[in-house]
From TrEMBL, chains A, B:
Keywords: FAD, Flavoprotein, Oxidoreductase. Residues 55-233 form the FAD-binding PCMH-type domain. The keyword Oxidoreductase applies. Belongs to the FAD-binding oxidoreductase/transferase type 4 family. The lineage of its organism: Bacteria, Bacillati, Actinomycetota, Actinomycetes, Micrococcales. Its cofactor is FAD. This is Glycolate oxidase. It comes from the Bacteria.
Length: 473, 473
């Protein structure tokens, strides 16, 4: 891992040295009362996102904005003093994208939580700090649905979802965050507030700036508000659970199913994940199975049963040990909850480094086989859970807490898994973002020309390099 | 209309004057044999896209590239000589995006037509000049489907679809071009070929450069190849046709249906369009109806009938004059073909200026009422066809050929319709692009800050301003 200060310096070669004694009183005066936190204990609570990376820096101060005007004032102040800004939503990021850098101001959007549903346009206008679950609940009151569903949907913010182009379990049929963002309010590096898009569904006027900001991890601007597309409420899904001797067999069945129908969920857990969940909260999963496939259909009417039957047939033809189906949503939800809890269950086995690699779906068997080899070679555990229908997997490198030598082996495995995914035509991150933890691996994926293009855009939008330096690229 | 030479000059303030005697022999030598056209008659055939704008300029030469290397050589040569480049696919654009500017080189991708389907990843790797229909046909051979379906799908190229972020009739359920672009090969203004994305479905590594190039109308780079996402073949749709006394009633029913289900098509024709189609090719449409709604469901199994029944009920509750449904795909296709032919039928009534304005769906009645008022005030006909489920409409301003005074009134109406859409929270273009014809209206929609941001990105990627000057923004 590189040090944070090096990250911050290298983010933009034109970054100027920060003002050594910036006028925090002026910042406080420009903000709503109580927005600025400077006491060390309060500030320290904003050092980390969920990665709790020990290399995270110490912020100078924290701004808890309650309006776009607060965000603008903070960005202008930071620009005037050359102070790095680290935007932050709910702090649930898994790649260190909102871990602090030394001397930065953490710009938290947690107080900006308004959610307004417009049933006539089927849109939600949402402040960046609102939680994903809050949007889902507000939409449900109008018979509408906001599909993107990261496993962390109860605790992650829409701003963070936009910053990382977050995915989830339903993406295999319903797409990712960018597919639902119709409009964004963004504060640019010079403090200008721009409004992109709106409540219209199709719009190709001008450059796709809206899409450029989605997934930009706070490096090009600070998103303060999003207009999100809603769809009619999902039909209650039917669920299939199938076990396989071998994880590669399960992966092949995923490919076969995808060629025939669009399942609304297609998740995979390998043996180590199954056992981690059983250890954590026993629910009678088959500990001997090499892999478990969890699929759903939310097709309307009788088609739901037909899709489940076809998936069952393909599992059977693909060598499933056992296959169980249910049309009871509550029973299905038990298995989904187990899948959602898998990362937390695995976390109880040690300290973790969470991957988010993706490959073209037919390369899944090669990826899973290769990960097992890396685990053996580096002498670490790497349980895998996957949004298999999208080829997006979460290998979890586990090592004993406090063991520096084991940590080094884990870091090696973490890096090798990313290289493997790249070799298989894949990506180092499908939905969590590059953040600070995967930044060193990005050039291997993108190559020098795309990295140069990336830096040209960054420089055009943030010439001082104050926006989330060290994150994203 | 501004003159083209002014457009070319104002595209980028740093544009240098073009070399008055560029070395075309050197360009020819850098290309595959036969790629360069310089004879006046051959070159003149590449002046216009479908808009046939009389202000289009005369190219210096035309390059018909047969490889990315040809494209790179052309871009490098143009950069060295300061010559503007106008990229061109099939020339079916409806906004003048590939109309020539004086002294430019038209860079045609028409010879780059390879289409490769990979059924295991469900992707198509497609050269930019391949037609949309060729991708659909190649996918269908593997039981797969490429959804985006502009009405011109039989004659438009994938490169043009990417350049404009093209839509179509199925977008209301299946989304637009950007939703299916997984990868792009792009030649940048300095001749570098970058490869963005790939065959993976979820990928959030680095900035969303892929999405930035979609819809950029050849102003940021030249797309030479696209990797497109395919989905399982569509189920045969059932069709509903309903007529209404008033177009606003029909628009309200569109809103009501959208709140309950996701139709796979939701098109609307007003009285003038219905009559234009009947005049052109009689098929017994109700000439007295104020509007006709054409909807389809492709839901699987019995759900298809349920969706059609629900739509029928909502039409009836919404005051439909008549309602007809069919599960016969051929019968339904007759109505869809009538809808697709509407623009061509309207074109027989005079010279046209084709709009592509969109509004939030509930604003459709206001838009349609307002367009009727503009038609009266400007004394022109403005029949309307619409992808109503998306709020995307095609008002067609019709005026007598060769009548300069009528043309001026038509241009006024064209401009007023765009302003109306903007006032209703809409866009000047949902799927055709800004091109050269709508460029003057863009600042009114985007505002000065977003225009400035757009120019910063343009300048970062094309500092000489050689890529499609005068188009897009």
């Amino acid at each position: 891992m590189t040090t944070v200060s090096k990250d911050a310096q290298s983010a933009d070669q034109t970054a100027t040295a920060p003002d050594p004694s910036p006028d925090l009183a002026a910042l406080a005066a420009a903000l709503a009362p109580g927005a600025l936190l400077t006491d060390p204990a309060g500030v320290a609570a904003y050092r980390f996102d969920f990665t709790a990376d020990e290399d995270a820096g110490m912020p100078l101060a924290v701004v808890r904005a309650s309006s776009a005007a607060d965000v603008q004032a903070t960005v202008r102040w930071a620009g005037a003093h050359g102070i790095p800004l680290v935007p932050r939503g709910a702090g649930s990021g898994l790649s260190g994208g909102s871990n602090a850098v030394d001397g930065c101001v953490v710009l938290s959007l947690e107080r900006m939580r308004a959610v307004e549903i417009d049933p006539s346009t089927r849109t939600a206008v949402v402040e960046a700090g609102a939680l994903n679950v809050e949007v889902k609940q507000a939409a449900a009151e109008h018979g509408l649905w906001y599909p993107p569903d990261p496993s962390s949907y109860e605790i992650c913010s829409i701003g963070g979802n936009v910053a990382t182009n977050a995915g989830g379990l339903c993406c295999v049929k319903y797409g990712v965050t960018t597919d639902y963002v119709l409009g964004l309010d963004v504060v640019l590096a010079d403090g200008t507030l721009v409004r992109l898009g709106g409540q219209r569904i199709k719009d190709t006027a001008g450059l796709s700036l809206l899409k450029l900001f989605v997934g930009s991890e706070g490096t090009l601007g600070v998103v303060t508000r999003a207009t999100l597309r809603l769809v009619p409420a999902q039909q209650p899904p039917a669920t299939l659970v199938a076990t396989f001797d071998d994880v590669a067999d399960a992966a092949r069945v995923v490919v076969a199913i995808g060629a025939r129908l669009r399942a609304s969920m297609m998740e995979l857990m390998d043996q180590a994940s199954i056992n981690a969940v059983e250890d954590h909260k026993p629910m009678g999963l088959d500990r001997d199975a090499g892999a478990m496939l969890l699929a759903q259909s939310d097709a309307p009417g009788a088609a739901r049963g037909e899709e489940i039957a076809l998936m069952e047939q393909l599992c059977s033809e693909g060598g499933a040990r056992e296959c169980f189906t249910t049309t009871e949503p509550d029973e299905g939800e038990l298995f989904v909850a187990a899948r959602r809890a898998a990362i937390y269950a695995i976390e109880r086995r040690g300290t973790i480094m969470l991957e988010d690699v993706g490959v073209p779906v037919p390369r899944l068997p090669d990826l899973l086989t290769g990960i097992a080899e890396i685990a053996r070679a580096c002498d670490v555990e790497i349980p895998v859970v996957a949004h298999a229908g999208d080829g997006n997997t979460h290998p979890v490198v586990v090592y004993p807490p406090g063991d520096a030598e084991a940590r080094a082996r884990a870091a090696q495995a973490f890096s090798q898994v990313m290289s493997l995914a790249i070799r298989l035509g894949g990506t180092i991150t499908g939905e969590h973002g590059v953040g600070r933890l995967k930044r060193d691996a990005l050039p291997e994926q993108l190559g020098p020309d795309v990295m140069a293009l990336t830096h040209r855009i960054k420089h055009a939008l943030d010439p001082q390099g104050i926006l989330n330096p060290g994150a994203g690229f």
